[in-house]
Write a structure and sequence with these properties.
This is Epoxide hydrolase. Pfam families: EHN (PF06441). It comes from Streptomyces durmitorensis. The protein is α/β, with parallel strands linked by helices. It has a single domain (6-382), classed as Rossmann fold (3-Layer(aba) Sandwich). It is built from 15 helices and nine strands. The chain has a nine-stranded mixed sheet, with helices on both faces. Helix 4 (115-122) links the parallel strand 4 (99-104) and strand 5. Helix 1 (14-25) runs antiparallel to helix 2 (44-56). The longest helix is centred in the middle third of the chain and has 17 residues, at 221-237. It starts with 5 loop residues before the first strand and ends in a 5-residue tail after the last helix.
Length: 384
């Protein structure tokens, strides 16, 4: 494969789908460990219902058609295959060229997370917006996720930012672009701003990734209160990350062999981290959830998606970011009451700070109109 992007279509063979359905129909289910719904993880009753729907009623071919309505490509970048959606902005006569914008997802997510906002960004006029706010939207799959290959070196957020910069500048030929992301994608987005201020117009994150070590300036009282609350939250939430950080191949062996186990592992975090009030399907209907799960299954990439956890200690704190910065804070437990002062430790030019109290870890999917409006507002003065 050369650096020239090649058109790509999502396609899963009938043999893979038939094997998937056979495995789903033979699933063995556990009994709940707690009488409180979802208190001990994915509720076995809900999982039974979800697995039955996946095996009998979920229409993958319809999902496949919907995915392929977006222009997808693969290209060799930094010696590895990168998959991405490239949706060019609508440019009426007399309107300046759309600003290129790279959207980076996190875990346990995929490029699907960004699709609901993509059209709003590329063609704002079709959604009641100003055509001058159009973006050329690029949505890469993180290395090791679905159709993108893992890097040969350790997976770090800085390393992914270097890949994304090559994708945007050398592969796609953009001289200047903006960046947006949350979770892992938020870290990648921050590194893009830190490393390439000459090329990056601005960076916008939803989960304010913490990389400050507080060596030089101790945390303020508000910052310490937040850090203590985050540590307390992690006590009940971090079991998934402990095993993926220390024994990723062990849990991957189970999830690569059991689609029910895979969707349980993913759905647990979708419910916990979405702004769904405990009702997962208010944010992720079964069809969308199973689209993501089928992509992980068909590509055999659930295990490789853990690499960024195993390699996490190799990440370094992000240096000061001098390009314009924006935060639209996700409404999820881990970032409740995140103080603006912590963002200002990293962003030396924080121009946009918003706490809408809507949209969780997967904000671009959960609140696409909100995200589109926030991105338009932030980047509007940076388009020159």
């Amino acid at each position: 494969m050369t650096a020239e992007p090649a058109p790509f279509r999502t396609s899963v063979s009938d043999d893979v789908l038939n094997d998937l359905r056979t495995r789903l129909k033979r699933t063995l289910f556990t009994q709940p460990s707690d009488s409180v719904y979802w208190a001990a993880g994915v509720d076995p009753g809900y999982l039974r219902e979800l697995v039955a729907y996946w095996a009998e009623d979920f229409d993958w071919r319809a999902a496949e058609t919907a995915l392929n309505a977006f222009p997808q490509y693969v290209a060799e970048v930094a010696g590895r295959r990168v998959h991405f959606v490239h949706l060019r902005g609508r440019r009426p006569e007399g309107v300046p060229a759309p600003l290129p914008l790279v959207l980076s997802h996190g875990w346990p997510s995929s490029f699907v997370e960004m699709l609901r906002v993509a059209g709003r960004l590329a063609d704002p006029a079709a959604h009641g917006g100003d055509p001058a706010d159009a973006f050329d939207v690029v949505i890469p799959s993180l290395p090791g996720f679905v159709h993108s290959e893992l890097p040969r070196e350790p997976f770090t957020r800085r390393g992914v930012a270097e890949i994304w910069h090559e994708l945007m500048t050398r592969t796609l030929g953009y001289e200047r672009f903006g960046a947006f992301g949350g979770d892992i994608g938020g870290g990648v987005t921050q590194w893009l701003g830190a490393l390439y201020p000459q090329d990056v117009a601005g960076v916008h994150v939803t989960s304010a990734v913490i990389t400050e070590q507080f060596d030089d300036v101790p945390p303020t009282a508000d910052e310490q209160t937040f850090l203590d609350a985050l540590a307390a939250y992690d006590v009940g939430d971090q079991g998934y990350s402990e095993i993926m950080c220390s024994r990723p191949d062990t849990i991957a062996a189970a999830l690569m062999d059991s689609p029910a186990g895979l969707v349980a592992w993913v759905a647990d975090k979708y419910r916990d981290w979405s702004d769904c009030g405990g009702d997962l399907e208010t944010r992720w209907d079964k069809d969308t959830l199973l689209t993501v799960a089928t992509l992980y299954w068909a590509t055999g990439s659930i295990g490789s998606s853990f690499r960024q956890y195993y390699d996490y200690p190799r990440n370094k704190p992000v240096p000061p970011i001098t390009v314009p910065g924006a935060v639209t804070l996700s409404h999820e437990p881990a970032f409740a009451d995140f103080p603006r002062s912590m963002a200002e430790r990293t962003f030396t030019d924080l121009r946009h700070w918003s706490t809408p109290k809507r949209g969780g870890h997967f904000m671009a999917h959960e609140e696409p109109e909100q995200v589109a409006q926030e991105l338009r507002a932030f980047f509007r003065p940076l388009r020159g």
